[in-house]
Specification:
Layout lengths: L10 H6 L6 H27 L4 H17 L3 H21 L2 H36 L3 H13 L3 H9 E12 L5 E6 L8 H18 L10 E4 L2 E7 L3 E9 L5 H21 L12 H5 L4 E3 L6 H38 L3 E9 L2 E8 L6 H7 L7 E7 L5 H12 L5 E6 L2 E8 L1 H11 L7 E9 H15 L1 E3 L14 H18 L3 E8 L7 H21 L7 E5 L12 H7 L1 E9 L4
Parallel strand pairs: 8-9, 11-12, 14-15
Antiparallel strand pairs: 1-2, 1-5, 1-6, 3-4, 4-5, 7-8, 10-11, 13-16, 14-16
Helix pairs in contact: 5-7, 6-7, 15-16
Length: 588
């Protein structure tokens, strides 16, 4: 038998039933009214449970609070707020430790996040400050920071910023409740609920206080350098807090974000009852709208480093080229110093420019040529050379050659100021060399002992050949033998050359025609015959163009014979004419 079918007897019924004599009546009552009695018993128990006891309230109070919250009943919140505030105050006065321990899991991350945001802003400000510290603009900003009392980093950050979206709020259109928000790490923390409430209040104030057309919505709020751009949607609107001047194209970004939120969370927006947790998933979409743009850094660290690197490279290259040129300059000066006939009096260099002043023998090496050998740019070098005559042996020889112009067969040597000439040279050159050598500075003496006179040798050779020639005559006649006539041509040529050479060398040549006769005739006859033979040869030579004033004629007769007449050959030789050459005026 179940509990519902079993009769329930209350306490009052048990007291009313007699312990004796009424059992039958009691049974009858129970049979007739058993079901109703059971229902009455259950109702009594329900009434007992509904009595306002602590146990009863503890079981129903949570459900009542949940229901009131779901229905957005503000009365419960208004009723509990003073009591909760007072309870917290009393608890903190008694012992703050339990409340601190309870809040630690929440406050710890919040504090760490706030510190991280602060440090992030400091780092960003420091980076910009470092980039601008050593520029002209940086000095201007330091002056502004000193004048306004703001930190230098803040001034730098504000000047370097074009715009920055610091926070984006998604707010429910009907209730004005903040559904979710996203904030830039460098933005200062703000109470999102308070911001959403203020925005809603401002919109209501504008609609209530001004005559605006139906459907017009608040789009922009500006306070100082901060702007709030509001983009309206059917069920929610976005509010973006912007520092600086954002481009108009950023409106499109906000519209895209709001449209995406309506597509993904349209149902939650339409059925919104106060629970914002479903909107946590849209934070990445909201963060997509957080962005910043800074002014192009004209003197950024990277460019500064590049510029510094370029300067260092240029400095190294300049130093390298300068060192190379200085080494070449030192080499050039060394070559000038070792070159005969060049005397460096003054030299120096400054900032890649070089100069040298000195003395130069006209016969010394060309300084420009020496400069080209060290590969130093001539445009960087200025020089002034004063002429002088060097006493260096090499230059003295060069000067002697330039002055004397010796023939190819003549060599020159200099020792202790004495110029030695050797070889073979024309007599005229020898004479001129003796004269010119006196005017050469540094030449003390001239030695020509080993120098052969080319004209003198030739003259002596011709003299010997002419004097060796013999012109033989017929017996007792002034007629030459037939084979002797051809000798006259060569003899005439030699005499002519001797005369010319002697004249060229400043000498005088005289020719004596000596006639002879054999011993067959008398002395007088022989003397006369020999005289006529010499005169006959003279006439022949005169006919060949020779001058008459250079000849003399003499007949020796049979005296001073050329050979003994024991033989026919001896007698033939004594019937002859020979030429004696006399040269006078020889220059030593």
């Amino acid at each position: 038998m179940s509990d519902e079918s079993r009769p329930v007897v209350t306490t009052a019924e048990r007291e009313a039933i007699p312990t004796s004599g009424g059992d039958e009546l009691q049974k009858l009552r129970h049979l007739l009214l058993g079901k109703e009695q059971s229902q009455i018993g259950r109702l009594e128990e329900e009434v007992d449970k509904c009595r306002p006891t602590a146990e009863n309230l503890a079981s129903v109070l949570p459900k009542a609070i949940d229901r009131a919250t779901a229905l957005d009943d503000q009365r419960l919140t208004d009723s509990l707020a003073p009591t909760v505030e007072k309870a917290i105050q009393i608890s903190v006065k008694k012992d703050a430790t339990p409340l601190v321990n309870a809040l630690f899991p929440v406050m710890g991350p919040a504090i760490r996040k706030a510190i991280a945001e602060t440090f992030s802003g400091m780092i960003q400000s420091l980076n910009l400050a470092l980039e601008k510290s050593f520029s002209v603009q940086g000095l201007k900003w330091r002056l502004e920071a000193w004048r306004t009392g703001k930190p230098f980093g803040e001034v730098v950050l504000l000047h370097g910023l074009v715009f920055r979206v610091e926070r984006i709020f998604l707010i429910h259109q009907k209730t004005g409740v903040l559904l979710w928000h996203a904030a830039d790490d460098a933005a200062q923390s703000q109470d999102g609920d308070m911001v959403s409430g203020m925005l809603t209040a401002i919109q209501d104030f504008v609609h209530d206080s001004f005559a605006v057309r139906q459907g017009d919505k608040l789009e922009t709020i500006q306070v100082g350098e901060l702007k709030v751009w509001i983009v309206q949607g059917p069920a929610a609107f976005l509010a973006a807090v912007i520092r600086g001047d954002a481009p108009e194209s950023y409106h499109e970004v906000l519209h895209e974000i709001l449209e995406q939120v309506h597509r993904e969370r349209g149902r939650e927006l339409a059925e919104f009852t106060g629970d914002t947790e479903p909107f946590a998933a849209i934070e990445p979409e909201l963060r997509r709208g957080l962005r910043a743009q800074y002014k192009e850094k004209e003197h950024s660290l990277r460019r500064a480093y590049l510029a510094l690197g370029a300067v260092l490279v240029a400095l190294l290259l300049w130093t390298g080229f300068l060192t190379r040129d200085n080494l070449r300059w030192a080499d050039y000066l060394a070559r000038l110093g070792s070159e005969p006939g060049l005397v460096v009096v003054e030299s120096g260099h400054r900032f890649g420019r070089y100069w040298v002043n000195g003395l130069r023998d006209p016969l010394a090496a060309d300084p420009a040529f020496l400069l080209s050998t060290v590969k130093l740019n001539p445009k960087k070098v200025s020089s002034r050379w004063q002429p002088f005559q060097s006493l260096d042996d090499k230059l003295l020889l060069n000067r002697a050659r330039a002055v004397l112009l010796p023939p190819e067969k003549v060599s020159l040597r200099l020792e202790n100021g004495t110029l030695f000439l050797s070889g073979v040279a024309p007599h005229s050159w020898i004479v001129a060399a003796r004269e010119r050598a006196r005017g050469i500075a540094g030449i003390v003496a001239l030695d020509t002992k080993t120098l052969l006179d080319e004209d003198g040798d030739r003259l002596q050779a011709l003299k010997a050949r002419v004097e060796k020639a013999e012109l033989w005559f017929q017996v007792n006649s002034t007629q030459l033998l037939p084979d002797q006539i051809d000798k006259l041509d060569s003899l005439a040529a030699d005499i002519r050359e001797i005369d010319a050479t002697a004249t060229r060398t400043g000498q005088t040549a005289r020719f004596r025609l000596i006639g002879r006769a054999d011993s067959r005739g008398t002395e007088a006859v022989n003397a006369q015959l020999s005289q006529r033979r010499a005169e006959a040869v003279g006439r022949i030579l005169f006919s060949k163009g020779l001058r008459t004033d250079i000849f003399s004629v003499d007949g020796l007769g049979a005296n001073k014979p050329l050979e003994s007449e024991d033989t026919e050959n001896g007698r033939v030789r004594n019937r002859s004419v020979v030429v004696e050459v006399v040269i006078t005026g020889i220059v030593p």
